[in-house]
Design brief:
The structure holds two protein chains of two kinds.
Chain A: E1 3-7, E2 10-14, E3 19-26, E4 30-38, E5 45-51, E6 56-59, E7 62-67, E8 72-77, E9 86-94, E10 101-103, E11 107-112
Chain B: E1 4-7, E2 10-13, E3 19-25, E4 31-37, E5 44-49, E6 56-57, E7 65-67, E8 73-78, E9 87-94, E10 104-106, E11 110-114
Parallel strand pairs in B: 2-11
Antiparallel strand pairs in B: 1-3, 3-8, 4-5, 4-9, 5-6, 7-8, 9-10, 9-11
The chains are: A mainly beta, B mainly beta.
Amino acid sequence: KNQVEQSPQSLIILEGKNCTLQCNYTVSPFSNLRWYKQDTGRGPVSLTIMTFSENTKSNGRYTATLDADTKQSSLHITASQLSDSASYICVVSAHQAGTALIFGKGTTLSVSS
Amino acid sequence: NAGVTQTPKFRVLKTGQSMTLLCAQDMNHEYMYWYRQDPGMGLRLIHYSVGEGTTAKGEVPDGYNVSRLKKQNFLLGLESAAPSQTSVYFCASSYSRQGLNTEAFFGQGTRLTVV
C-alpha cells in the first residue's frame, strides 16, 4: 500500500534555531516528492519538487533532501522565523493519473520567540 | 492574479441539506481536483477532472458529485449532507496531471460543518 509517514508529528523550536523534518515513503512507481507548507486556515503551498535523480533542492531557508534508495526525505529549515510556524506536508507522486499524490499527515512546527 | 478561489469559505449545514462548493481557477489549467482534509489525516482525493466536461472518482467519492461544465470551474456537490462530511475541503489545479513534475496550486479551503 502506498504510504507516506512523517516525523515528528509536532515540533517546537526557538526563533533562529534550525530544524529537520523527516519523511519516509513506500510509493511505487515513484515519480517525485514534494514538500508543502500549510499555514493555519490556508491551503498548502509548494516549497520544493524533487525527482528521482535529484538528491537536494533549496528554496531560500528551506532545503529538501531525497534518498531514493532508502525512500527517505528531509526538510531542513535554517534560522527559523516566527512565520515558519505552520504544518509541513510531505507528498509523494506516483506514475499514475488522478490519485497520483499521496499525502503525509504533516509535521506541525511552532516557532517561538 | 487570483490563482485558485473557493466559495464559500465557511458553511454550516444541517444533516440532509444539500450544497455546492465552487472552485474557480484563472491559470487555464486542464486538471482540477477536490480534496478533503480531516484532523490527523493527510489530504484525500474526492474527485478530479482532466479537462472540461470530464470527471473521475478519487479515493473517497461516496456522497459527493462533481461537474466541470467550464474549464475554469469545478463544482463539488453534496446532495444529502451527513456529519461524516464535516471537513475542510480544498480545490487544486495543475497544468498537467499531478503524477508529473508540475506545480499544483491549492485554494484557501472551505470549512464545512454538518450538524
